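Suppose you are handed a protein chain with no further information: no name, no annotation, nothing but its sequence. What can you learn? This example shows the usual starting point.
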Amino acid sequence: MNMKKTVTIAGLAILWIGAAHVTAGQDVPALKDVFKADFLIGGALNRNLVTGRDPNAAAIAEKHFSTITAENDLKWQRVHPQPDQYNWEPADSYVAFGERNKMFIVGHCLVWHAQTPRWVFQDDAGNPPTRDALLASMKDHIMTVVGRYQGRIKGWDVVNEALADNGTMRDTQWLRIIGEGSPDKKYDHIENAFRWAHEADPNAELYYNDFGLETSKAKCDAAVALVKDLRSKGLRIDGVGIQLHGGLMHPSVEGLEYAITSLAATGVKVMVTELDIRTQSRGYRGADIGQVSRASTNDPTAAAAETQKKLADRYAEIFSVLLKHKKDITRVTFWGVYDRTSWIGGSPLLFDRDYRPKEAFFAVVKTAQQQ
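A reasonable first move is to predict its three-dimensional structure. Written in structure tokens, the prediction is:
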């Protein structure tokens, strides 16, 4: 074997060892330590992670996160698939994972128009339920789910995505049936959800969560109006979650700052709850689950060095805004842990498909250190 080949093989071996070392996360700072003085930092965890089938992802979460959100296993469709059936095992594993690691545990979500089983919105004859029947189903679900984790899950996304982008109420079955098409009942399903969640666990924090608050002033203003309405009626609402499913060109700094300052002015906590950045520059920009899929967000250049540099710059810009307003921001949660399991595919997170920290990770850390 000649000297050149020996050097090449030795170099590759060193690179492999270095990659394995980085994968294990031993030589990078923990995000929860980097932002300890600023806000909680976390991620959305899937079933494979919390049940031990994805130990590398679990290692990332354990090292870097001070807060966690259940990505799917506390949504109605997963935890309560039939009227008389609850599936607790995955959610129990999620809560146990958070408790073992002394994390702030968030439940997501109690009332949403999507990922809700068909039986909720249909009676035995296939017709829409009455207002009273749907309210009864909602109350039973909330009291049972929140009650089971009383004192263990510390915060709940009580209502998810009830507003349209233009600031009106989203036309959902919750609104149509419980609101009965009446303007004076437009918040009824939301009010009842918050009331029952508080009744089920008086000490849990309660949140409203939505996307596009940082891109649509009308939607943000509607969220502000919603918060004020609930508080005027003596209902507990502790915070509003800005999902912040962003892109390389959105949201603008001005739009994000408008959302943070407007919501904070109501007296509630402001959180970034579902942060990721898709690299695709064309197509639908929002986060409506009915319009987003891995196919629709596919970007063949996502892993390219140029794209990753843009992604890193974008994350740095967003975190510079969040740190500027850290007195109002209490939590920042990435929607996922690493790229392979992201709901939108591509390369939207801080860790790549092989669990390694990306350029964006180091850009975020550097932004914090500079602040």
